[in-house]
Design goal:
The complex is a heterodimer of chains A (283) and B (367).
Chain A: H1 2-40, H2 62-68, H3 71-104, H4 110-119, H5 126-138, H6 145-169, H7 173-181, H8 186-197, H9 199-215, H10 218-223, H11 232-241, H12 247-268
Chain B: E1 2-4, E2 7-9, H1 13-43, H2 49-56, H3 59-77, H4 82-116, H5 123-145, H6 148-151, H7 153-173, H8 178-185, H9 187-190, H10 193-204, H11 210-218, H12 231-258, H13 263-271, H14 276-305, H15 308-313, H16 325-334, H17 339-366
Antiparallel strand pairs in B: 1-2
Classes of the chains: A mainly alpha (283), B mainly alpha (367).
């Protein structure tokens, strides 16, 4: 009995330790963001006080107003949203059929194609800069949103295909056969069984490509020159390159740029560890 | 113009080097294949199985030694800057030393598979040795290929690995709040490089930065430090920022691996009286080993490829201390507008990464 109690106590201790450790790690992760948010609400004069004042005495939204009144920033934000959603939509639209074909249909060499798709992730991105520049300029797509979308698709499409194919492979074939026996046609099987069961995987792939397009800035830096097609990270990079860096505006812009990815992500992260269709055969 | 054994060739040194090394790899493949066939024919008629294992296991070290010989010749032939020459020397000597150890391990391996059937208890130590070999191979593959800053990526990787592992283990051992914690800890991974760069510039700022403020208040430093202004400090600061950005990747890979640990096996080990270290070593670690190697491979490649943080934070300075290979290529192409050189240099980079991948795949398929 005493042994059992001590064991339980020890387990409680180790769990407490795990929570403490996680709390510390989360603090380290969140601290830069918190600091950025705190800074963005400060009036500019308080930046230079010594010793540093962590919490402002007179909170202000002036920095945000300054950013949001900048038509350039709004245009770039709109471009970012447009590019990211286009990239996400197109890569899902193309990668789902591709993944289905590669995993379910008797395609010759399907497996080696998949491995090739995966290994494309390992290429150093520097390889693509110059060829893409030449291709885009030949097609007169430099400094256009569609040019950027094409460039990003070359990165997101393989990743999405790989991710979706992985979830498809985890769906047991027996389920599809059962649906067929019950009288589902091919198309209906795909929509009602395969797609529904792999929804978490598909959502993850979509989120992944959105985040990738949202945060990318090297391609955007190279292939766009005017606010007509520039994305928000590029603008931030320009803010940073100015001789007299306006840190207040920079912080507010960075906060605004982080929000659209952090919030959807916070709601969707549970899909990362969920739903593999396990146990659906048994019943 | 390159001085090669006193002759000057009209090609830049790295082009010569990559062509030479590429040719050498092909040549070594041919020669070592011949060697393999020879020793197989030679050992065919041997009755003693142990002999066969002994001799045949020498084939891979022979091949790698051949490769390294090419490295030594290239090092002698081409005049490098002193710094690069030193790095190359250290890398190749380490690799050579390691291959000799590796040959020993292989023979030991052969011996153990021979006698392992009869003496069961030896087996676990084999696992550890193979593991050690694997880790070292990956490390050496790194060391040989990396240049100045990238050498300091090794501490980045160890921090990433240990931190990621610890966090993943902790996450796996709790039930409540697992979702929120995972969400929070993944935030660096989804944040934009530009934003991360800005965050850390702002934290490292000598006057207005919070890092100096904290350290001053704690009394660790006496006066503000300019974190991004001196070469060595800038490297360390960049490594810290890079670790912050990349550790969720390792964490999520390991977390996925931890899902495969069988609870029954864990319980059985506990009932048999193993403490947490024992269960970790006997059950958890072997199960997540594939995830560990995947995580190491991915983060190696990404850390090696990624030049986005240096661009934002330092632009490669001060004194080019943070100009990693990728950034160098970028500057070649879009500052100097030497597209040809940039394309060739990125091919060289690709070859280096390919070497790491091939080594990894070789071990992955042996599992």
């Amino acid at each position: 009995m005493a042994l059992l109690a001590s064991k339980r106590a020890r387990r409680r201790w180790s769990r407490g330790l795990a929570y403490a450790f996680l709390a510390a790690a989360s603090a380290v992760v969140l601290f830069p963001y918190l600091w950025m948010a705190l800074t963005s609400f400060k009036p500019i004069e308080e930046f230079f006080t010594y010793p540093l004042r962590w919490f402002s005495q007179n909170w202000t939204l002036a920095q945000y107003a300054g950013v949001l009144e900048d038509p350039k920033f709004l245009a770039c934000l709109r471009n970012s949203l447009l590019v990211s959603s286009l990239v996400t939509g197109i890569s899902l639209l193309l990668s789902i059929p591709a993944a289905y074909g590669l995993t379910r249909l008797p395609a010759p060499g399907g497996k080696s194609v998949l491995v090739g798709i995966l290994s494309s992730q390992f290429f150093p991105p520097m390889i693509f800069f110059v060829p893409f520049y030449i291709i885009l300029s030949r097609f007169k797509l430099l400094n256009t949103i569609s040019g950027l979308v094409f460039a990003y698709l070359s990165v997101t499409l393989p990743i999405c295909t790989w991710m979706v194919a992985t979830t498809f492979r985890n769906i047991p074939r027996e389920l599809e056969e059962a649906a067929r026996v019950d009288g589902c046609g091919d198309i209906r099987t795909i929509f009602e069984v395969v797609l529904r069961m792999s929804l978490p995987g598909i959502l993850t792939a979509g989120l992944f490509s959105f985040v990738l397009a949202w945060q990318e800035y090297i391609f955007a830096l190279l292939y766009t020159t005017t606010p007509a097609a520039q994305t928000a990270p590029v603008l931030l990079f320009y803010y940073l390159g100015q001789h007299q860096i306006d840190y207040g505006r920079l912080m507010a812009a960075a906060v605004l740029l982080s929000l659209p990815v952090i919030f959807p992500f916070a709601f969707m992260q549970r899909y990362f560890r969920q739903g593999r269709g396990e146990g659906s055969i048994k019943g | 113009m390159t001085q090669v054994f006193g002759y000057s060739l009209p090609v830049p040194w790295w082009l010569f080097l990559s062509l030479f090394l590429g040719g050498w790899v092909g040549l070594s493949l041919l020669v070592s294949r011949g060697f393999k066939r020879l020793i197989h024919r030679w050992t065919e008629n041997r009755k003693n199985h142990l002999d066969q294992i002994f001799i045949r296991s020498l084939h891979t070290p022979f091949f790698i030694l051949l490769l390294l010989l090419g490295g030594w010749i290239a090092l002698g032939a081409v005049e490098l800057t002193p710094k690069m020459a030193r790095f190359a020397q250290v890398g190749i000597s380490l690799a050579t030393a390691f291959v000799l150890i590796f040959a020993g391990v292989k023979i030991y391996h052969g011996l153990l598979t021979e006698y392992g059937q009869r003496y069961e208890p030896i087996k676990p130590s084999l696992g550890i040795l193979a593991l050690l070999g694997k880790g070292l191979i990956i490390l050496v593959g790194l060391l040989v290929t990396l240049d100045s800053l990238s050498i300091s990526i090794t501490p980045l990787l160890t921090t990433l690995g240990i931190g990621g592992l610890a966090v993943a283990l902790a996450l796996n051992s709790i039930i409540r709040f697992r979702g929120p914690f995972t969400g929070i800890l993944l935030i660096p991974w989804i944040s934009s490089f530009v934003v991360v760069g800005i965050l850390f510039i702002w934290i490292y700022d000598p006057q207005m930065g919070v890092l100096n403020d904290i350290l001053l208040r704690l009394g660790v430093i006496e006066k503000p430090v300019a974190w991004l202004a001196s070469p060595r400090l800038a490297q360390i600061s960049l490594i810290a920022a890079n670790t912050w950005k990349f550790f969720p990747l390792v964490m999520i890979t390991l977390l996925a691996g931890l899902q495969d640990v069988s609870p029954e096996l864990l319980e059985a080990t506990r009932v048999d009286g193993a403490n947490w270290l024992g269960t970790f070593r006997m059950v958890i670690f072997p199960t997540i080993l594939p995830s560990i190697s995947t995580g190491v491979l991915l983060s190696t490649i990404w850390a090696y490829n990624s030049f986005t943080l240096p661009i934002v934070m330092t632009g490669g300075g001060p004194l080019r201390a943070t100009e990693i290979f990728g950034l160098h290529i970028f500057k070649l192409a879009f500052d100097a507008f030497d597209f040809g050189a940039a394309a060739a240099a990125s091919l060289v980079l690709f070859l280096q990464i390919l070497a790491v991948i091939v080594l990894y795949l070789k071990f992955a398929e042996r599992e």
